[in-house]
Write a structure and sequence with these properties.
534 residues; alpha+beta; five-stranded mixed β-sheet; 40% helix
Length: 534
């Protein structure tokens, strides 16, 4: 990596040949490697393995899943499910490190997910255009709300004009801040906040439950509401909430039940037990109490998908996936399929949301407020300071060892003195380079170059299939140049679009790209330049 301020300063250069104690130097090298890995991993640079905790917060229970991520692969390592009143013990039970990132779900009545079509325009103008487009479609005061959006693609309208298709999240940031403070008080390092159904879409895409180009409906049945969505090309592209959930079914069963034992009035606890044991019951008296709610759920599912097809001129959705705690009701899959004439191809496991939260932790739709992202930057500063200390210790050790060699060889031949003198020059060179290294990192730590903000933003947008090798920062322009290797060459445009869509970079252009035959098939060497937004 390189930093530049009116001139280019190289931070990493080849080390000269010197005499040293191999065991001691090896130990220092390993420690420096460990610190470097921690810093680069925090910046999103490199391919090191890291773990993320996905935390699905429900009304009654929570589920936590640790996912180990390395390159394009991810694997579940630990799973924990407990009642909400035991959340305070999560840190201890799952042995969560203080710097281990946690991604949570956040759903609120003051949050709306809407699909929108806008004329083609610069990215920086989209948010303001969405405020006008959605102000009549959401109930909260959109002028004081936050908006996150994802560009789904472009299409040509009937009049021949090009339109941008987007999915937008409108929400109140204050509610998220309160929830994060509560979780941080429990020792959890929350660095990701996402609506549940985006996490479910990420899980479905990662597990290859459907083909990449396939379209499917998602029916997420919670306790008090159900979200009906559409997933296409691995992304959630539509969502609508209906006031029907698992608790609604239970409440419908709390009336008077007529049986061979006479009339019985069920409590919520008794109704929940019967619902859990029998599901969509064959007992006519029980089914008659449940059926109106189940029919409403089926009708709303069908109507929502038909609305999506008509409103967005889409092909018919013929398959659906069930998710959420309410989806586990016995016989529900068959009932929904029969009533809607849609094929229910899968019922997601209860850990799907938590796993999906960990999988999408690097997504640009992260609702985490900026003030909490700054905490991650502070942690990276601590790592960089340790790196400087180790580097300086390395210089002192070099000096000590070489001076010892000099004392032993004072009476040696002139050739030894000459060789030693050359070694002293090499040490001075190392000292200068290491001092330059320390100075550069110190400037980054104090953000004198503005590099901290740039690195922070890069940590949000650089995907796992990109390995950065150099970063040049020019403050006069201001602009940056990135170079490295992209393991999937066909995703270079996706990476450039992510940079263009970020809050910090604009006018992204490709300087050059060429095949990297030494790395892997399809890999590219690239160099990209972009300007830093004022």
């Amino acid at each position: 990596m390189r930093l530049r301020r009116n001139e280019r300063t190289s931070l990493w250069q080849g080390s000269p040949h010197v005499w040293y104690n191999w065991d001691v130097m090896k130990a220092i090298k390993e420690q420096l490697k460990k610190e470097s890995k921690a810093l680069l991993s925090g910046l999103g640079i490199g391919t090191g393995s890291r773990s993320v905790i996905g935390l699905d917060l429900g009304l009654k229970d929570f589920r936590a899943v640790r996912v180990q991520k390395a390159d394009k692969k991810a694997s579940v390592k630990d799973i924990l499910a407990r009642p909400m009143d035991q959340l305070k013990h999560l840190n201890k039970e799952l042995h969560i490190d203080e710097d281990e990132n946690v991604s949570i779900n956040f759903n609120s009545d003051n949050m709306a997910i809407r699909r929108a079509s806008l004329p083609v325009m610069p990215k920086e103008e989209i948010e303001e255009a969405l405020r006008w487009e959605l102000k009549e479609q959401v109930q909260l005061d959109i002028s004081h709300a936050k908006i996150k959006f994802d560009i789904l693609g472009e299409k040509v309208a009937d009049d021949g004009s090009k339109k941008i298709e987007l999915i937008a999240i409108v929400y109140k940031e204050k509610e998220i801040e309160e929830k994060i403070r509560e979780l941080k008080g429990l020792g959890l390092n929350v660095q990701g906040v996402f609506p549940s159904d985006f996490a479910l879409a990420g899980y479905i895409d990662n597990q290859k439950i459907i083909l990449s180009q396939e379209k499917v409906g998602l029916v997420d049945i919670g306790g008090v509401k159900t979200t009906i969505g559409v997933i296409e090309n691995g992304k959630l592209c539509f969502a609508r909430d209906v006031a029907v959930g698992g608790d609604t079914i239970t409440e419908a069963m709390t009336g008077v039940l007529v049986s061979d034992k006479g009339k019985i009035e069920l409590s919520m606890e008794e109704a929940e037990k019967i619902k859990h044991e029998q599901g969509v019951s064959s007992d006519i008296s029980i089914l008659s109490m449940m059926r109106p709610v189940l029919e409403k759920l089926a009708n709303q599912t069908k109507r929502s998908l038909e609305y999506y097809e008509h409103r967005f001129q889409s092909d018919a959705v013929k398959k659906i996936i069930l998710a959420g705690s309410g989806s586990k009701l016995k016989g529900l899959k068959e009932f929904i399929s029969k009533e809607t004439s849609l094929e229910v191809i899968h019922v997601l496991p209860e850990t799907a949301c938590a796993t999906g939260l960990a999988l999408i932790s690097d997504s640009s739709l992260n609702l985490l407020p900026k003030k909490f992202k700054a905490e991650k930057k502070a942690a990276l500063k601590k790592v960089s300071v340790r790196m400087v200390s180790i580097a300086l210790g390395l210089v002192f050790l070099f000096s000590y060892l070489l001076l010892s060699v000099r004392a032993i060889n004072l009476n040696n031949e002139l050739g030894v003195y000459r060789s030693y003198w050359q070694s002293i020059k090499d040490v001075a060179s190392i000292k200068d380079r290491t001092a330059l290294f320390g100075y550069a990192i110190s400037r980054v730590s104090h953000d004198e170059l503005g590099a901290g903000k740039i690195m922070k933003e890069l940590s949000n947008v650089v995907p796992s299939f990109v390995m950065l090798e150099t970063l040049d920062i020019m403050t006069e322009e201001p602009s940056i140049e990135l170079s490295g290797i992209i393991r999937q060459g066909d995703k270079l445009s996706e990476f450039m679009l992510a940079l263009e869509n970020s809050v910090m970079f604009e006018k992204v252009k490709l300087i050059f790209s060429e095949k990297n035959e030494d790395y892997s098939s399809g890999a590219l060497d690239f160099e990209i330049a972009c300007q830093v937004r004022p």
